[in-house]
Amino acid sequence: MRAIRVASAALLGLTALGLTAPAAHARGDETGFQGAVLPQTIAAGGQVTLQAVGCTTDVRISSGIFEDVVIRKGESSAKAVVDWDVKVGASYEITFYCGTFWQTTNVTIAGGRHSHAPTPAPIVPSRGAHAGEGGTVAGFDLKEVGLGALLITGSIGAAYHLSRRRTGDDGA
Questions:
Q1: With 60 as the cut, is the pLDDT of residue 104 above it?
Q2: Lowest-confidence range among 20-34, 75-89, 113-127?
Q3: The pTM of the whole model exceeds 0.70
Q4: How far is CA 45 from CA 8, 40, 49, 77, 111, in A?
Q5: CA distance 72 to 57
Q6: Among the listed residues 103, 136, 127, 128, the one whose alpha carbon sits nearest the alpha carbon of residue 26
Q7: How far lies 5's CA from each of 2, 159, 169, in Å?
Q8: How far apart are CA 51 and CA 61, in angstroms?
């Protein structure tokens, strides 16, 4: 009989936790952070434009084909020169880091070498400030955290109350 009470209390607690998880998970999907490299096929020694939008901090970009680059908060792009010793025809991964979020894209190295300055790629303007995050602390919405804690506390309290009441009825 006791195993049934413990199992039902555990199930009730897991249900409450499961109902609060989607709200906490959705916050990470709404960042809107995106990184891009233009052009995606470039010759050794060429210049690429690195673009990042939707990040509220500095964006760090790293790859094995150029030195690490930082796009400062409030800016949307930076330029980097591809190393001369890259392998023609190879695909290299470029990673954009925005706080705890990251995104990767690939660049393919074309044959030939640039003997003149490349034509710069068009720069996509920033979409402005990322608004709508008011009332949050480091990505945590205090209302959602409080509601989740209240649900979990309530389910544990209800399970305890029900188990204590049944124990009194059984005389055990």
A1: yes
A2: 20-34
A3: no
A4: 65, 14, 13, 19, 11
A5: 7
A6: 136
A7: 5, 8, 14
A8: 10
DSSP state of 31: -
Q: How many CB atoms lie within 10 A of CB 155?
A: 19
Give CA–CA dist 35/134, Å, rounded. Answer: 24
111 or 89, greater pLDDT: 89
Residue position matching structure tokens 């998880």: 21
Residue with tokens 């609060």: 20
Q: What's the CA gap between 93 and 64, in Å, rounded?
A: 8
pLDDT of residue 139: 60
- CB neighbours of 105 closer than 8 A, spacing ≥ 6? 35, 36, 37, 40, 93, 94, 96
Structure tokens at 171: 């005389």
Q: Compute and round to an integer the Cα radius of gyration of the chain.
A: 26
Which pLDDT value is given to residue 153?
Answer: 92
Of 171, 152, 149, residue with least CA distance to 160: 152
pLDDT at position 79 is 92
Beta-strand runs (E) in 54-164: 59-63, 69-71, 77-81, 91-98, 101-113, 136-137, 140-141
- Pairing verdict, β 59-63 and 34-38: unpaired
Q: Are 90 and 107 in contact (CB under 8 A)?
A: no
Residue 65 burial class via C-beta count within 10 angstroms: exposed 0-12, middle 13-18, buried 19 and up: buried
3-state secondary structure of 105: strand
